[in-house]
Task: inverse folding
């Protein structure tokens, strides 16, 4: 905006009062249609169709914070800020570092929250439920009843518990690896590429077992309750 205002002032400098309006109209003349069409898209901006179209038009597609933040330090952006006395190069760099560190801190908090909830809420609930079902299997065996369904449920629960334990340990290790990185850009890239993937995997394993665990054992409102009974 500042650049366009500057362009307007320079263009209109020295224009007589009689020619001022016509000069202004000339300045705001429509851009060539090819330039306009480069950015206009009437379809679904979240679709794969638009991603492909944007790439063909040469438009950037920065999907994540670590992808977008380095744009602050592009030479052309630094030059623009310095030209109008908005920010110096060192001030821009300081803002980049602050935003990059904020991203890492937020992801660290989210990862730690996930591991805490998993170890202190979800796994204990599954331990209790599987333990009670296993007790039922043993009790029925004492009176000669083969609890086929309960045995299968215990196996499913045990497999799920093992999968969750492995996933939460993987997340803890990857988050620790991210925290050990001292370069903000390297840390952000690691969170984007590795830690978030571990978080997604842990969420999916826990979500799977939510469908298996007894309703009275599950420690937080289930998706079913939130969708249909709130």
Result:
């Amino acid at each position: 905006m500042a650049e366009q205002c500057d362009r307007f002032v320079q263009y209109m400098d020295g224009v007589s009062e009689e020619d001022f309006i016509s000069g202004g109209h000339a300045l705001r003349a429509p851009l060539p249609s090819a330039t306009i069409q480069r950015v206009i898209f009437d379809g679904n901006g979240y679709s794969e169709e638009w991603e492909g179209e944007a790439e063909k038009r040469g438009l950037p597609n920065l999907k994540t914070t670590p992808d977008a933040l380095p744009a602050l330090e592009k030479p052309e952006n630094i030059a623009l800020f310095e030209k109008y006395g908005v920010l110096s190069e060192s001030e821009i760099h300081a803002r980049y570092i602050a935003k990059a560190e904020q991203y890492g801190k937020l992801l660290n908090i989210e990862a730690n929250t996930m591991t805490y909830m998993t170890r202190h809420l979800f796994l204990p609930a599954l331990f209790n439920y599987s333990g009670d079902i296993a007790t039922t299997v043993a009790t029925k065996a004492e009176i000669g009843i083969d609890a086929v369904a309960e045995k299968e449920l215990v196996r499913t629960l045990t497999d799920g518990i093992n999968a969750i334990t492995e996933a939460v340990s993987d997340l803890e290790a990857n988050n620790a690896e991210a925290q050990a990185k001292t370069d903000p850009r390297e840390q952000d890239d690691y969170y984007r590429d590795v830690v978030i993937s571990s978080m997604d995997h842990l969420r999916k394993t826990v979500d799977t077992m939510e469908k298996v665990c007894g309703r009275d054992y599950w420690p937080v409102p289930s998706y079913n309750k939130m969708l249909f009974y709130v």
